[in-house]
Design goal:
Length: about 80
């Protein structure tokens, strides 16, 4: 699974509690879907092998091309 981001995006590092704010750089990234690491509810899309990412719904809100430079592309 891959995600293409056209700009730096805010995300969370859930390997620490509470999760720390951080950024995912512009580019193409290998990602994976995991159960929500904080509450165990829902799913997150995270950089593969890490807990860096955000809720899947958050990323999917940005897949429409109308967002232009803010658009996120998810390739499954």
């Amino acid at each position: 699974m891959q995600m293409i981001v056209k700009r730096e995006w805010p995300a969370y590092d859930a390997s620490t509690l509470p999760p720390e704010h951080m950024f995912i750089p512009e580019g193409t990234h290998e990602i994976e879907r995991i159960p929500g690491p904080v509450t165990g509810e829902g799913f997150w899309l995270v950089l593969k092998g890490t807990l860096i990412g955000a809720a899947e719904g958050f990323w999917r809100d940005w897949i429409d091309p109308i967002w232009e430079d803010y658009q996120v592309q998810i390739i499954e």
